[in-house]
């Protein structure tokens, strides 16, 4: 099967890291296309960034559909444009926050999210509510590490993330850690070893979940609000995003 793993920001270095982790998680025979949009923010660290990034995500999905992709992973912890992506794609689409939170709830009665900028914590809190995970999510902790600082190995950033995880386990009484940024995906195994608890990377988890759905022949329902978008004129900068009726 062919899966498209979308980094919704425009950092090619971040996309490379995400692709490496997705391939490590994928099963035999799964082809991973790790891509980022040609337009949008360099990193997603606000509601504004999140909103602007969605058109880039939809543009990548349009290309993925033409390339025969069987499913998609949204590799940003804000899960930007997830509902719209599900309307636009034939195959299943899973966001890494959604995947990681649900996985953590399977292995612990409570988890803490450790993320990047403190200002983005509210986005993860809103997602926990939307996904029915609020009763499991005991805290969302910001480290104030900029997203792009995670493009490459940074010992200082790792030390701060590790310290935040230790505080979460001690102060929140959590049994698991959810990493709140796709740029942290390469840290999961190391953190799991040091902390001795489940540390959930949403990139790998979402890849495995999409693989399972595709293997079972399960796609997003096109009955109801995930049906194909209604064809209609779009104007101005969005003209190229107008939908036409599907023939198959």
UniProtKB/TrEMBL annotation:
Family: Belongs to the HyuE racemase family.
Domain of life of the organism encoding this protein: Bacteria
EC number(s) stated in the UniProt entry for this protein: 5.1.99.5
Listed name of the protein: Hydantoin racemase
One Pfam family here: Asp_Glu_race
InterPro entries: Asp/Glu/hydantoin_racemase, Hydantoin_racemase-like, Iso_Racemase_Enz_sf
Catalysed reaction equations from the record: D-5-benzylhydantoin = L-5-benzylhydantoin; a D-5-monosubstituted hydantoin = a L-5-monosubstituted hydantoin; D-5-isobutylhydantoin = L-5-isobutylhydantoin
Enzyme class: isomerase
Example of a GO MF term: hydantoin racemase activity
């Amino acid at each position: 099967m062919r899966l498209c793993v979308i980094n919704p920001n425009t950092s090619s270095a971040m996309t490379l890291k995400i692709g490496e982790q997705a391939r490590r998680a994928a099963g035999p025979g799964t082809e991973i296309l790790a891509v980022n949009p040609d337009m949008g923010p360099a990193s997603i660290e606000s509601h504004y960034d999140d909103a602007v990034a969605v058109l880039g995500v939809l543009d990548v999905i349009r290309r993925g559909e033409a390339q025969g992709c069987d499913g998609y992973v949204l590799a940003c912890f804000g899960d930007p444009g997830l509902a719209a992506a599900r309307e636009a794609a034939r195959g299943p689409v899973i966001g890494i926050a959604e995947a990681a939170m649900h996985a953590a709830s399977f292995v612990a009665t409570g988890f803490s999210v450790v993320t990047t900028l403190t200002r983005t914590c509210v986005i993860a809190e809103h997602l926990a509510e939307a996904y029915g995970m609020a009763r499991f999510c005991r805290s969302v902790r910001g480290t104030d590490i900029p997203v792009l600082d995670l493009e490459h190995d940074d010992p200082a950033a790792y030390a701060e993330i590790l310290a935040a995880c230790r505080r979460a386990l001690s102060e929140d009484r959590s049994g698991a850690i959810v990493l709140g940024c796709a740029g942290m995906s390469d840290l999961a195994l190391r953190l799991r070893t040091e902390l001795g608890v489940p540390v959930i990377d949403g990139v790998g988890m979402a890849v495995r979940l999409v693989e399972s759905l595709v293997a079972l022949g399960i796609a997003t329902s096109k009955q109801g609000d995930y049906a194909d978008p209604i064809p209609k004129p779009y104007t101005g900068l969005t003209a190229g995003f107008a939908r036409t009726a599907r023939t198959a």
